[in-house]
Amino acid sequence: MNRKRFFIGFLCLLFTGVVTAQTLIQIRGSVVDETGEPIIGANILVKGTTQGTTSDLDGQFSLQVDRSPVTLQVSYMGYARVEVEAVSGKPVKVQMAPDTQMMEEVVVTGYGTFKKSAYAGSASNVKGEKMKDIPAVTFKDLLQGNAAGVQFASSSGQPGASSSLNIRGMGSFNASNAPLYVIDGVPMRAGSINSIDSKAGLDIMSTLNSSDIESITIIKDAAAASLYGSRAANGVVLITTKRGKAGKPSIQFKADWGQSDFAMEYRPIMSGEERRQHIYDGLAAGQIKKGKSEAEAKAYANKKIDDYAPVPWCGYVDWDDVLLQKGNHQSYETSITGGTERFNYYSSLAYLKQEGLSLRSGLERISGRLNVDYNATDKLKIGANILFATVNQEVYSEGTSYSSPFYTSRNAVVPSDPVYNEDNTWNRELIRIGDRNPALAAAYDFQREYVTRAFNTVYGEYELLKDLKFKSTFSYDYVNTKGREWYDPRTSNGEDKNGGMIKKFYEYKKMVWANQLSYKITLAENHHVDALAGYEIDDQYRDFLSGYATNFATPDKNEISNGMKTESVSGNDIRTRMVSYISRLNYDYKNKYYLGGSFRTDGSSRFHRNNRWGSFWSVSAAWRAIEEDFISPAKDWLTDLKLRASYGVNGTLPSDYFGYMGLSSLTNGYLEQPGIVRSQMMNKDLQWETNHNLNLGLDFGLWNRLNVTLEYYTRITRNLLMDRPISMTSGFDSYLMNIGEVKNRGIELEVNSTNVQTKNFLWNTTFNISHNRNEIVTLDGLQTEIISGNQIRKVGKSYRTFYLIEFAGINPETGAPQFYTNEKDKDGNYKKEITESVEQARAIVLDKHAEPDVIGGLSNTLRYKWFDLSFMFSYQFGGYSYDTWAQKTEHGGNDLKANIPTYYRNSWKRPGDVTNYELFYENPAVAMNKISTTRRLHSTDFIRLKTLTFGITLPKGWTQKLKIDRLRFYASANNLWTWAAYDYYDPEAVSGGTAIWGTPPLRTVTFGFNMHF
User: Fold this and answer.
1) Per-residue pLDDT tens digits for 365-412
2) What CA–CA distance (Å, rounded) separates 474 from 60?
3) What are phi and psi of 899, to 5 degrees?
């Protein structure tokens, strides 16, 4: 019976559909802007239905309806929505007017969205459009140059490697300098989530698909950042993902493919024959230095040369061809978005695969997102943001490991080393590193990460009374990371223990529950008040387990349980919680005068109960002078004028979850018997680091084409966490205390211009430049300077000021390196006397530091009919880096078994030569690879073509025949061209003022297409 009813019902529906199809009528029309020019891509929706279409290249549209007349709702970004009545047989012309409130840039803070004209703080906004075609695993690299005052650094160029953003300088010594990341209003985890001991790391942001991002707002001052309290001292990065809009479903498919290589030539070395000749000359020169005749010197060189640079049986080997490859990139994405007046949705699914330059380097990601918003009633709104991602990463050893392809190819394996023996077995007798063949290790050893992430948020908002709303948001972020590290028994890494497997698990959980009560009211027409109060809970948990087993029967069965010997098992779990109370009050009069204030108090489990609570606040004010009557005569050319000021205090939590506790360690035993040892002194007085931030801003616009923002800021961090030296009689040499102070102050300028805007041609330019000066005010209260390797922490100087022996050049008569003694005279000035004895030379505090004086970017976007072109240059000037590699490569003949950098082509050869490189000879009297001097200090000034995209959008008349609304082909690249003041290594392959041992930045070029249905 039920089946019969179902069948009859189905026939009725089918019959109804046929009748409806037969009675459909056509509505035609066009959409134009305020000047009468056609609007392309406007959304036209039949009111009360989901039926709709979009306007074509000529602004024309047509759709089929079942009745006449109908009411059409026409919308387009930046224009006010229009409702018109349309009838069959009479084309309707819809003229749209700009919506000043929609066109105006907004600042999304997580505790409210504000028009930029009403915002009193400092914020930079980067639209997702700027990142959509760039072949990058994460969005962070693309912020440098696009946002003033933001600097990017990465630990490695491997796909998915950990990276960091620095906003307005360095504000902490021992705690984090990373900003707080907030996605769709919810604070999220940041940093690396790798489980194995990889120097590259795995950035949690690699789980996000950049194409899902609508915009990124970077908050730099206290006006909004103080609402985030103890996590916002280093700024806040607010990520807003895409959401659905009312209209017919829009389906998008995007795909691209490309290749990667070094962004710059990477530490070039001499080829096999050139190296052999250079070593031969060095052997002979060493004998002549000892007083031998030229004939004796040549005889000695002929005898010894094959010990260092023999001609191999297979010919000289280019180890780059053996250990490295061209990287490749491919990605595929699809999304669907749409909605009605009550229900909106956005959903995406994406696949990304990148292979790095090494044989053991790559990343594979599958990610999906669903954002929904539903107006259940006129008062109740609910929604959800759901992210699920899996990321697999394979990395290789970096640093000075003999398995590292970059270190070994530049230092440890030489062109005279064959990869294989003549019998096709692996070469295990390399000239410098013996049996540690890096190609063999690359063939069998591996390091792999497997990440699963589910980041889900649900919210509900209910209007209790008119304009009085209560919103509750619950978020749960779950990350599971599994790492496997295999040392094969056939390689030098695993043969001593017959193979070894390390397996690690990290489980991260983060729960955020936020409740907010907001109220907006207008009094006497001109007084606008916006108030908010809230309560939040942040609960984070981490669980860790690791095992290491060795002695495997066969390398093909390398699961950890197959290892016959358990070398170690370890694990721990950590939990931290924070409770917060927040409040905010904003007031404006006639949208002209603005006042704002916020207060937040946080209680964290990272402090003793006596100091658990910290209070953070801000005040701000703005004056929109353009609204004043006395400005009216200038409004023909002055289109905006606003003054802003803010001051506030926010904080930083210590990195150590239990830094205030007196701890004992249970892991130290004796003869396999358990033992307890005191491991940390108690400090109940440990407190928050506090960041005091002043920001002054000026915004003005000219002729509705040029918009300028100028800002000055000071940022003083007090109660810095410092290790204060104490007597060793306590059992410890230092004690963590709140005693330091550091100051950052600077200027930022941002200029946006519309250079040309006609019917067929648009050209926009954005330029920004930032200057920041970092200065240590107080160290531990006792010392005024602390030497840290080749840097010094000194009161009155930048944190990363260099401290080195000053190189004085090469003696033009003898080829010997020279140094300045830098002894002080009676007036305290350095005496610039030259010596060839390094023992007589003293290291000094230099006027050079790692932090650049100036950073910025220049971007342009051009569109002409079907064509679009965009490019962005980033740059920095005034900073320096120390080349740590020099302690291995700058040997001058002290390590003849190693590779020779190409800069030794300019070494001293005969009297009268003026050069910076000494005579290259065997066992030099002064080995420069053993001495830290200013010769290793290099400028990091650069100008880089960071991104370039060229696209062609086919005419809609062509694509409609294929049932495609829009089809665009494009070519895109990042790091395409670089000018560097010192170009032997990449100026961005630097971390903390030191050239990294890892993979440098890569140049990637891709080609792709984007279809809309």
Assistant:
1) 999 999 999 999 999 999 999 999 999 999 887 888 888 898 999 999
2) 45
3) -70, 165
Cis geometry, peptide bond prior to residue 69 (ω within 30 degrees of 0): yes
The partner residues of 801 in beta bridges, in order of sequence, read: 792, 849
Residue linked to tokens 């759901």: 386
How far, CA to CA in Å, does 435 sit from each of 501, 555, 796?
21, 19, 51
Q: How many CB atoms lie under 10 A from the CB of residue 926?
A: 16
Which regions of 87-235 does DSSP assign to beta strands (E)? 92-95, 106-108, 113-115, 123-127, 150-154, 163-167, 180-183, 186-187, 213-219
Q: What residues have CB less than 8 Å from 672, skipping those under 6 apart? A: none
The closest alpha carbon to 949, from 967, 968, 972, belongs to 972
Residue closest to 650 by CA, chosen among 237, 233, 235, 236: 233
Structure tokens at 495: 């043969």
Could you tell me the strand order of the sheet in which 60-65 lies? 60-65, 25-32, 92-95
Write the secondary structure of 941-990 as one string of H (helix), E (strand) and C (coil).
Answer: CEEEEEEEEEEEECCHHHHHHHCCCEEEEEEEEEEEEEEECCCCCCCCCE
Nearest to 956 by CA among 1011, 896, 995: 1011
**CA angle 875–240–380, rounded 5-degree value:** 165
Q: How far is CA 400 from CA 136, 403, 885, 887, in A?
A: 27, 8, 9, 11
* Residue 494 and residue 488 in contact, taking contact as beta carbons nearer than 8 Å: yes
Conformation bin of residue 647: beta by default, left when phi > 0, alpha when psi is -120 to 50: beta
**926 HSE (CA, 13 A, CB side):** 23
pLDDT, mean over the chain = 88
Q: Measured between alpha carbons, how far is residue 632 from residues 238, 625, 637 in Å?
A: 36, 10, 10
- 274 vs 271: CA distance, rounded Å: 5
Strand partners, 219: 123, 236
Task: Name the burial class of residue 635, with classes exposed (0-12), middle (13-18) and buried (19+) by CB atoms within 10 angstroms of its CB.
Answer: exposed
Residue 110 — φ and ψ, nearest 5°?
A: 90, -25
Distance between CA 440 and CA 305 in Å, rounded?
Answer: 27
Residue 964 CA: distances (Å) to CA of 59, 177, 514, 953, 961: 17, 47, 43, 12, 7
Amino acid 193 reads: I
Lookup result for tokens 């056609």: 38
Neighbours of 955 (CB within 10 A): 13
Give the pLDDT mean for 433-446: 94
User: Is residue 832 within 8 Å of 822, Cβ to Cβ?
Assistant: yes
Tokens encoding 689: 């680091």
How many angstroms separate the CA atoms of 428 and 357, rounded? 24
Q: Are the CB atoms for 955 and 760 separated by under 8 Å?
A: no
Q: What is the DSSP string of 563-574?
A: EEEEEEEEEEEE
**Residue 958, both tokens:** 């062509």
Strand ranges, E, within 837-927: 843-849, 854-864, 867-877, 880-882
Closest CA to 596 of 942, 112, 924: 112
User: Strand, coil or helix: what is 96?
Assistant: coil
CA distance 269 to 385: 51
**Cα separation values, 682 from 685, 686, 735, Å:** 9, 9, 9
DSSP state of 362: E
Of 317-321, 347-351, 965-969, minimum mean pLDDT range: 965-969
* Cβ count near 484 (within 10 Å): 19
3-state DSSP assignment of residue 521: strand
Nearest to 766 by CA among 644, 860, 901: 860
Q: How confident is the model at residue 867 (pLDDT cuts 50, 70, 90)?
A: very high
